[in-house]
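#struct-help
A.M.: can someone run this one for me? Single chain, 951 residues.
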Amino acid sequence: MSTRASRSSTFISLKWKLMLILLMTLSLVYGLAQTLSYSRQQRELAAELSARSQQQVDMLNATVDTSYRRLLDIAQVMLLPRNDALAAPTDDPWSQQAQDMESRATNILMLGVVDLVQLYSADGQLQQAWGESLAIKPEIVRRVLELEQPQQSISCQNNCLRYLAIPVMFEGGTTAVLLVGSLMHDVVLEYHRQSTVDIGLLLMPSGRGDGLAPRLMALTNRDRYESMLSHMNLTARLQSPGSSFRLTVDGRELELLLSPLVQDISDSRAYWLIISDITAPLEAMHNRRLFDMSVALSGIVLVLVLLALMLRRPLGYLGRLAEQLPQLARVGGLRKQELQQLPAGLGSRAFSDELDVLADSAGELASRLDELEDAVADHTLHLERRSAALQRERDFVTSLFDTAEAVILTQSRAGVIQSMNQHGSRLLGLALPLQPGYRFEDIGLLAEGEDAQAQLQSLYEGRNPRLQLDTRFVADDGRELHLSWQHSRLRDAGDRDAYILSIGLDMTERRHAESRLYWLANHDPLTRLPNRQLFFEALVQRLKSAAQSGRELAMLCCDIDDFKGVNDSLGHHVGDQLLEAVALRIGEITVEEHHLARLGADEFVLMLECERDIASAASCLAQRLIGAFVEPFHLGGYEIYSTLSIGISLFPEHGQDATDLVKSADLAMIEAKEQGSGRYRVYHAAQGSVRVERFALGNELRRATDRGDFTLQYQPKVDALSGLVCGMEALVRWQHPEFGAVSPGRFIPLAEEMGLIVPLGRWVLNEACRQMAQWQGEGMIPIRLGVNLAGPQIAHEGLLQEVDAALAHSGLPPTLLDLEITESFVIRQPELTISKLIQLRERGISLSMDDFGTGYSSLSYLKRLPINTLKIDQSFVRDIGKDRDDEAIVKAIIVMCRSLGIGVLAEGVETSEQLDFLLKHGCHHIQGYYYSRPLDPLALWDFVDQHGSSE
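D.P.: on it. C-alpha cells below:
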C-alpha cells in the first residue's frame, strides 16, 4: 500500500500549489502597486488643477487691473481743457463745470465704455451724476483729495461696479473728485475672450442669514450652465470660499472654483465663479490605468507559464523518489548520513503534496533508527554512570585529604592520630608519616575555652557525638593561626581504629577581616579617628560615670571655616589632606582622655572632663585650639590658612544625654560661625529657641501661599502741593493662624534665604495687578501701583515673562504699573539689571529705585539706569531737623534728581517739620504716616475717593 493512498487528506501536486501561491502573491503586489500609482496620479492631477486654478485667478485679477487703467484713461480724456478756453467765467463754478462735462459724459455713456460718471465736491457732496447710481461715503472723497492720487474700488450692491475716483482742481482753486465706473460684465467677457474659460459673477446680498440665495450677476454660456447652477446649493459652498468642487454635466467633468472678489466696500459679498472642463485629464488618467492593468495581467500569465515549464521535470522526479523511499526503510541499508541530505517535511496539511509524502517516509525510517539508537544509548549511559560512581567513591578517599583546604585527620578512642592530609601537615609543620602514638593534644594547640580538655575526653568516651572547638596555634615562622575544629564520631565505627573525624578550618584571615571591619565600622578611614558611633558609645559611658561621680564634663564641637571654599577651589584631594592635617593638629593639643572624634564632613568633636570649673577649662582649651591654627598648612604645593569655629556645651547644664549635649555644642558652633571665623561660643538657651523658631517659621512659610495666609495692604503716595493721591505701594502682610501677624522684617529675609522670594514676589505682582485692574473696572481714577522687586526676582531669567503674564491675566495697562527695585542689588549686578530694566521701560512700565542713599550708588551707573523716580530712604528723612548731615544728603539727592530729570519721592514722612523741609527744597511727592498708614483694599478705596486724583 503506497503512502499516498494511506493519507486521508486530498492530494494536490506541489506544482499547482506553487503556481497558486505565486498567482496570489503577484496579484497582491500588483494590486498594491496599482493602488499607489492611481493615488499618486490623483495627487498629481489635483496639484495640476490647483495650479491652473491659481493661474486663472491671477489672470482674472490682472484683467481687473487692466480695466482700471482704461477707466483712468477715460477720466483723463474727460478732464481735457475745453476748446473755448476764452469763455467768460461764471459765479457758479459747479454749474460751469457741469455744463462742460455734460456732453462728454453723455457721449462716453452712449459709447458704452463706462456706465457711471459722478462729480463730488470737496466736502463729499454729490454735485452731478450720469449713468448708473452709486453712493459713496464722504470719507472716500476726502481721502482722494488728501492723498492727491486716484483711488480704485469695487462696490457690489445691486450690481457689481468698479469705479475710479480722481482728484480734480478747477480754475480758481476749487477742488473736486471725478468718479467714473463700469459694470463688471465687461471684465467677465474680456477674461472669457482671452482664456476661453467660462466665468461668472455671484453676488451674496446682505441678510443672507435670513435665507437669501446668491444672485448670478454675469455668466458666460449662460444657457448651458444657468440651469445647473440654479439647482446647486451655492450658499453652502460659499461657507468655504477659495475651495473647488466638481460636477458632471452632459457627460463632461467640470471643476467649479469660487474665489472672493476683493475691494468690495458694500455690505454684500461678491465671488468669481470659474468653470473649468477637466474631462480630458481625467480620461487620460483612466486610460493609463487600463493600460497598466493589461500589461500587468499579461506579465502574470507569462510568469506562470514559465514557472510551470521550469518545475515540470524536477517535481516529477521528486514525486517518483517519494514513492520509492519507504521501500528503502523496509529492506534497510539506508545510512543516517543519507537521511540527513533529504529535505525535511512540512507536516500534515489539509492538502498534501510530494514533500509531505517524502517527510512521512523519512520520519518512518528515522523513528526505527532512533528506537535502536536510544536503546543503545540508554545502556551505555547506565554503564558510564555506574563506572563514574565507582571511580568517584574510590578517588574520594584517596584525594580528600590532599585536596581540601582544611586540616583533616582521624583519631582513635585514645586520641591518637591515625591519619592526616597533606594540607594539615604543611599548616601545622608536621612531617608525614607521624610518629606512632602521636596524640591530638601533642600538636600544641591553645584552646580558647576553659574546659576544652574535658570536652575532648567526653567525646573520646562516646558521651558526646560531636564537638566544636576554637584553638590558636603559633607556627614555626611566628604567625599566629586561628583554627576552628569540628570533631565528629564516625557512624558504625565499631572496634575500628579510626573512631573520630576531626576537621580544622583556618579562620585566621576571617578573624583579621572581622577585626578590620570592626575598626572601619567605628573609625573614620581618612583621619583614623573614632567616628560618630564609637564616640557616642564612649560619650554615653562617660556621661554615666560623670553623673555617678559628680564630675563635670564639656563638649567641644569644632568646624573648619570655609572648608567648602578649599574643596571648590583646590579640589577634594587637597580638602582630604586638609582634614588629615587638622586632625593631627588638634590631636597634638588634646590628650587621649579628650576622646577626639570626627562626626562627619569638616566637623570634629572632643570631650573634656574635670572635677570643677569646667566652663573655664573648656574656654582655655578652645582658645588653645584656635591659637594653634594661626600657622598655615602647606599641602599639595599650596599655603592654606584655615581657622576653627568652636561651640561649647556643658554637662549637665546644656543637656542630660549625649544627643542633647552634641546638639547644644553644634548650635553654639553655628553662632560662632555667624559672628566670624576663628571664634568660640558657649551654648545658651536662647540659641536653641531661636533656631527652633526659625525652623518652624521656615516650614510655615512654605505652606503660607497655599493656605492663603498672605494679604496685601496699600500705602498711598500723595502730592503735598495739591493734597491729591499720585500713586500707591503694595505691601505684603502675613497673618499666620497660630503665630499671628508676622513682621515682614522677619519673613522677607527668611524667604530670600530659603529661595522662596521669587514665588512670593510673583504672587504679590499678580495679586496687586489683579486688585488694581478690578479697581479700574469699578471706576477708580488711573493712578500708578508700586510693586517691589527683590534682587533674586530681577536676577531670575523669567522676570520679563512673569511681568507680561501678570499684566495680560489682569488686563492692567502697563502705564499703571511702577516696579520698585532696591539700590543695593542694582549696584551689585548692574550689567544683569540694566538690560532687563530697559526692556521693562520699553513696555511702558514705570521704574523706581527704592531705599536710595543706603547702597552707595555710583553716579555713572545712576545715569545709565532707565528709572523714573528715586525714593529717598526713610533713614535720612527720619532725622530731618535733628541731623544736619542727613538734611544735606536729602538736599543733595533732590538737586541731583532735578538735574538728571528724575522724579523724587520721600519715604517715611511722619511730621510736619519733615514735610516743610522737603517742600522747601523741591520734593513734594510724599509717602508715610503723615498722610496714611498702609491700608486694606476697602480703606484704600475710600482714601483715594476722598483725596481725588493727581492727574
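A.M.: thanks! DSSP finds 30 helices and 34 strands in the chain.
D.P.: also worth noting: Confidence is low (pLDDT under 50) at residues 328-348.
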